[in-house]
Amino acid sequence: MRMRDLEKVSGVSRETIRFYIREGLLPEPVKTSRNSAVYDEEHLARLFAIRRLRGDRYLPLSVIRSLLETSQAEGSAPAELLHDVDRYLQARLQPEGVRESAAAVAAEYSDDPDHLAECIDAGLIEVAKDGTISPRDARILRIVNEIAALGFTRKSGYTGDISARYVELMRWLAREEVRDFLANSAARLSREQASDMAARVVPLLNTLLGELHVREILGALAEGDTVWKTANDNSGDDALPEQPAGGSPGPVPC
Q1: N or C, fewer C-beta in 10 Å, the chain?
Q2: Cα–Cα distance between 164 and 176 in angstroms, integer?
Q3: What is the reported pLDDT for 19?
Q4: Chosen domain end from 62, 93, 124
């Protein structure tokens, strides 16, 4: 195919295609004359792979180049390389169980429809068209139920916006972790090694995050005690201290 055909099918401009060729992300086309060249299916497949890796994975071109080289050495397409890793990790990390009714799980805590709606709006769970949620989301919703039962509810000021903050924080962290892993490990390992390494480190990272979270909560509480003590010393015994800025730490509400 000619350049104009490659542009049309791939959705990538000719300037970008030429840039990718200069950077070694695409192979040189077959020259048919001084001002004409022919591109094949490999160029198209690589362009689709680059678009996916940049758009879905937010990877820099240097990492994409390494993945392309690794996939070429293994005789597979770069998209297939990541798909195999994704599929393996899904099998290793997904909890066992069956899909459950989101309404039924939410009702274990409360029949209030707003409870489930806020969890959905905050991004804590994803409900399918048939009203079911995955085994992992069922676990998440039951944890949220337990937290709400302790008193961390919207009536106490713990709104869905606070829940969404946890989701956004985890989404940002997960993207950064995947980006770092692909840049530092996946590009130089086989798909089996990369998948096994990622599957083993996730539980350790979860434990690490838990310990760091507790440590920072204790630190924030210690700072809060200092602020409250200072307020008491300056205001007298009968005065009530103001709450420290930012409020007291609390778990995910819904």
Answers
A1: N
A2: 18
A3: 93
A4: 93
